[in-house]
Amino acid sequence: MRLWHDRLIPFLPRQQLLGQHRECCALRGNGWGRKHATVDYVFRHSPALLVAYHLLVMAEMDARGYKHAKEWDEPCYRGAKCLPWKELVVEFAERYPEHDKGYFEDCLENLRGKGIEIKLSEKNAKPL
Prior knowledge:
Blueprint: H1 14-28, H2 47-63, H3 101-113
Helix pairs in contact: 1-2
């Protein structure tokens, strides 16, 4: 699984968006620090970046009428079977430096490989 570029979150189909939620829950929980070729970069940063990303995903879910367990809105929450983080300061302006223009293009190509074409216009695309 991958974390899609954050600028693509509003455009992801239902399956990919809900998959992001599940992936974020797993990474925030007992999956934190477990090696995974696609998302290892996440562990080189503060968990606060993952939480900020996950909050974006959940906000999009809310906007579409999808429900999630509200415990995940709490930044230190890590799941029912995992001790919470002691303290996290979540800055929404921060994002993974790996989520650059090249990664954005890689994500679009990956989605195309799944038969998903996301058309971004000047009007609906946020700058990278």
